[in-house]
Amino acid sequence: MTGAPDVPMQLDDRIPDGPLAEKWDRHRSALRLVSPANKRKYHVIVVGSGLAGASAAASLAELGYNVSCFCFQDSPRRAHSIAAQGGINAAKNYQNDGDSVERLFRDTIKGGDFRSREGNVYRLSQVSADIIDQCVAQGVPFAREYGGLLANRSFGGAQVSRTFYARGQTGQQLLIGAYQALERQIARGAVQMYTRHEMLDLVVIDGRARGIVVRDMVTGAIESHAGHDVVLATGGYGNVFYLSTNAKGCNVTAAFRAWKRGAGFANPSFTQIHPTCIPVSGEYQSKLTLMSESLRNDGRVWVPLKQDDTRLPRDIPDAERDYFLERKYPSFGNLAPRDIASRAAKEACDEGRGVGRGGLGVYLDFATAISRLGEDVIRERYANLFEMYERITGENPYQTPMRIYPAVHYTMGGTWVDYNLMSTLPGLHVIGEANFSDHGANRLGASALMQGLADGYFVLPYTIGDYIAGTKFAEVDTSHSAFAEAEQQVRDRTARLLAINGSRSVDSFHKELGKLMWDHCGMARSREGLELALRRIPELRAEFWADVRVLGSADTLNQSLEKAGRVADFMEFAELMCRDALEREESCGGHFRVEYQTPDGEALRNDDEFAHVAVWEYRGEGVPAKRNVEQLEFEFVQLATRSYK
Amino acid sequence: MSTMRLTLKVWRQASPEAKGEFRTYPVEADEHMSFLEMLDVVNEGLIAAGEEPIAFDHDCREGICGSCGMMINGKAHGPRAATTACQLHMRSFKDGDHILIEPFRASAFPVIRDLVVDRSSFDRIIQAGGYVSVGTGAAPDGNAILVPKEMAERAMDAAQCIGCGACVAACPNASAMLFTAAKVSHLAMLPQGQPERHRRVLGMVEQMDSEGFGGCTNFAECEAACPKQISIENIARMNRDFLKASLREREETGAGAVSN
């Protein structure tokens, strides 16, 4: 099933030679092509229907490929890209404020704390402008100025206004655009859509990804699908923490199954903690809700100067408040990048200056902006976010500051891919949040939508052709024994979960795992904590497999069973994250090891030893995963200590 | 923090073919819980007692994916205006309340299990024309076509639809006019939607009718139930477009003399 342990994993990044600005154009011109008449003979399986999956499936079908697309939701329109609020970056320089492809590239490399690839990031910046054009043409109702031109706002980690938006529902509108394009191809018969289907295994034949095994979530049927290429667009794994801003269904299963079939997994510990989420209100909490970063354009973050100050916010005079982001990072102020803003909030709360229930919160205050601009302007900009806050907390943010706290939001780590977005397993491409390639150790705001659509609309449709044109495919269909074996493994695992009939629910295990990960592999990590987690996770996993209670049967809609399979994978994956965090003996971006910090508490990188991607390789059950390294070369950007002061 | 004791009557149906029934469950809830978190608590109790948990669709739990949806005391998404079930919080209820929970009921939304229904008819309505036919890669610059701010805002008002199906569930006729009209209007108000404007409305309305949704008789219950406050003005706009498009189609196919 996996390669011999002593054969090193091949990690050729396939970044083309030549000047940075010419790499992508040169590469595109050199890619092999599949003739239009032949494309329909090739079957591409796309798993996931968010921004990356829907845009890829639609674009590949437009090109003539025969596409099948799978999602676990009841409609492709519901994928979690829909919840992205604030916006999408693009180097259009419409505001004449000095933006350029070069600047977006540099901001992204710096924002990622110099742990991403120059070639990939430059390409992302280049195609960013095309994305906006494409979405406008699809009818995405972006915000406009009175003259009819596209409007922009600012976002964290940038000093230009390059973020395009549709109120606080940018992800929704972009996804609906991609979804419409996908539905158009479904109507043409060019895409076969499978909703309420979950991928449970990847099928590899002669070293190539050749299909998937899925469960029909309504009938419980286990089905095989064979193809020439499998594209994973399955999003991130933030739900390993149980509480996150991810949708409840988000999971690591597809990526993890692919890992066990031989696809290297890069930087699993790189997770993003978003600074502005609504704080936890009680034990029953099932998810956390983000308040868009765009709010930091007009909201000021503060805590009381004094510890345990129980006065109402309006009773605390300005002189007794600490606007800690403005104080610590004067040149970026409230728009400091996410990792930095999150850590600063945690620090304030750790000092006993947090606000709200349990002291785990800081204020995000709009009073200054409201007095400067008027309530109407604030309402126009953020009405839906303010209403959402009010619905959840019962408090009116026009009158009293919001309370916010950091929460798990995004995972920069993901399946390792080369410049063509292909994993270490030939025929397995990985796009969007599911891959690791562009955001390094910290993603900038409004860049997830950009990357998902860049991969799906403008990168994969080219690069997949190169793989297909250059491959001599053996005739394979679902009658191949590899499908039967994979199906049997899926059935056995399902039967095993149902047979345990223990005493604890799936959620109770998931919550326990999540707490463990948040405490030891969250905003601050230490050797001691990670080693503790690495001892505890296998115990918890054993308890899970001995004592979980999954009721019902395998051949109906069974939501407990679905969750159980996902949590079982999180139980293994969590260990990989902790090992990755433990072995990366430096702090960078969202990965903060308390042992490695500057005297004033900022992340301390170790470029000599860790300017690389850690790529984990599966080597069989019970065998420790192997850590491989892809060295990052910085030809065009000088490695520097990130400063937003 | 206040705790309340509630009595739920929940529709349980094991499969599409099975005969369903209401079952009664007591629950203790915190006022800061969301409605779905309250159901999570009920489900944990059911699992402990050996009864299969209540199946309900949900995903983002922040009111945008459109997955959740159920009738709560006879109202789609419950008592609070402009609020999905996942964003409804228990502070909208009080100690001692009885709450009746049912799936969305419409022949075009068959029940799959408990509160889970099949809304794939909505996707098929979109397939019948709810898009702009523009392939990847050939788009002009985003600022090449000006869009007046007011038009962009009105298009956005319609485009906010989350496709949850509350409009259908709330309508005495189980009509999907508000959903269909929201999509028709979103694209009809933008310059990019003009070339296919007539084709789109004809295709989508025809598909809507063939899915078994009822007709619109202006109850406006859909607008009241819509968690995104989509206005029924969109229905008027769609009807106007539909009429125009039908006339034009008759002209073009020579089906009869119609003047402009």
Top keywords for this entry?
heterodimer, A: 645 residues, alpha+beta, FAD/NAD(P)-binding domain, Flavocytochrome C3, Chain A, domain 1, 2 domains, five-stranded parallel beta sheet, five-stranded antiparallel beta sheet, 19 strands, 37% helix, globular, B: 260 residues, Ubiquitin-like (UB roll), Fumarate Reductase Iron-sulfur Protein, Chain B, domain 2, five-stranded mixed beta sheet, two-stranded antiparallel sheet, 8 helices, 7 strands, 35% helix, elongated
Domain unit count of chain A: 2
Give the CATH architecture of the largest domain in chain A.
3-Layer(bba) Sandwich
Largest interface: A-B, 79 and 81 residues
Mean of all residue-level pLDDT scores of chain A? 96
> What distance separates the N and C termini of chain A?
50 Å
Report the average pLDDT across residues of chain B: 96
User: Which strands sit side by side, in order, in the main sheet of chain B?
Assistant: 2-1-5-3-4
Decide which structural class fits the backbone of chain B.
Answer: alpha+beta
- What is the name of the CATH class of the largest domain in chain A? Alpha Beta
Q: Give the overall form of chain A.
A: globular
Strand content of chain B: 5-15%
Give me the CATH fold name of the largest domain in chain B.
Fumarate Reductase Iron-sulfur Protein, Chain B, domain 2
- Our count of helices of chain A gives 17
CATH superfamily of the largest domain in chain A: FAD/NAD(P)-binding domain
The major β-sheet of chain A equals:
5 strands, parallel
What can you see in these coordinates?
- The complex is a heterodimer of chains A (645) and B (260).
- Chain A is 37% helix and 14% strand.
- Chain A has 645 residues and is an alpha+beta fold.
- Chain A folds into 2 domains: 48-270 and 412-631, FAD/NAD(P)-binding domain (3-Layer(bba) Sandwich); 275-407, Flavocytochrome C3, Chain A, domain 1, CATH 3.90.700.10.
- Chain A has a 5-stranded parallel sheet.
- Chain A is globular.
- The mean pLDDT of chain A is 96.
- Chain B is α+β, with helices and mostly antiparallel strands and 260 residues long.
- Chain B folds into 2 domains: 3-112, Ubiquitin-like (UB roll) (Roll); 119-253, Fumarate Reductase Iron-sulfur Protein, Chain B, domain 2, CATH 1.10.1060.10.
- Helices cover 35% and strands 13% of the residues of chain B.
- Chain B has 8 helices and 7 strands, in the order ββαβββββααααααα.
- In chain B, α2 packs antiparallel against α6 (197-210), α3 (149-159) runs antiparallel to α5 and α5 packs across α8.
